[in-house]
Description:
By secondary structure, the chain is an all-beta fold. The protein is built from no helices and 10 strands.
Amino acid sequence: TGYYVAGSTPGTDTIRVTDALSATATATVTVVALASAVDYSVTSTAGLPASGVAGETIPGGVSFTVTNAGPGDGAAPVSWTVYLSANAALDGGDVVVDEGTTAALVDDGSTVVNLSGTYPLSPLGAGFLIVAVSAADDTSPLNNTSTPKAFTLDPRPVDYYVSSVNHFTGT
């Protein structure tokens, strides 16, 4: 078992393979350009905040950037999900903060995705925001998750209202 890495130029190449017993064989490999190679990734999380308040509206301007590194133009819509993670690893315990889709991107195209809705009610405290993207035509899905960004989900402030005070003794 082995791998053959070809350059980006289409054509043919002859390779020679040697096994553990020093037996050799040759093969002709045809390199075909993959014109539809689409490679989506999250290229910026600079627009994601460092903190938010549980149950409060996500303010305008909270965003991240998705890019298609190509070399092909995308044809399928790009799905995205922003997670709140307690441990900086995308896993089943993470909570969805927001999700949606954006249009396919051309080669080297990018788009800023704005979040909306409300922050989840939990988990409170220090955590991480992680963005994941996917598309049916993405040929390199191993780089579709952002680097975790530190985030703190603060509890909602409590505002007590005292309707009346009873005083039974003294002045």
